Amino acid sequence: MKRMIVYCVCVLMALPIVAQRNRNGNEGGGRKSFDPTEFRMRMERFIIQEAGITSDEAAKFFPIFHEMKEKQMKIGRQIMDLKKQKKPSQMTDKECTETVLEIESLKVEQAEVGASYTKKLCKAISSKKVFRALNAEDRFHRMMLRDFRKGKE
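Request: output the structure for the sequence above.
Response:
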């Protein structure tokens, strides 16, 4: 009788694991790992479709666009590193002031990178399509975040 109870408890404990594995469609039971190359390709396809960019325009647009994003991400990492450097409770007022000013300076630099590259993008393709592409990128990120929250890939 005890064996039967132990067996039933084990089966009941394993059911959520099996159900989770089947729901997500992979063996690990969790989300699929993030693939930056696939993400980039999906974003490019979405932007091309939403902004009406031709293949010739895409060949001009995306190298500049990705270079801009890389530089902005690099600055963003610097900002995050500064924020994680120390806890405010472990810093003096002077150190906090210096850190805040450095973060704000980096944010300005990040915006300047965006402005200078946007001018380059507008020279590569029409300003209207650049505007549409930047809006499409925002929509793509919101869509991906919404899907991530829902538990999709």
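The chain has two domains: 1-30, 34-150.
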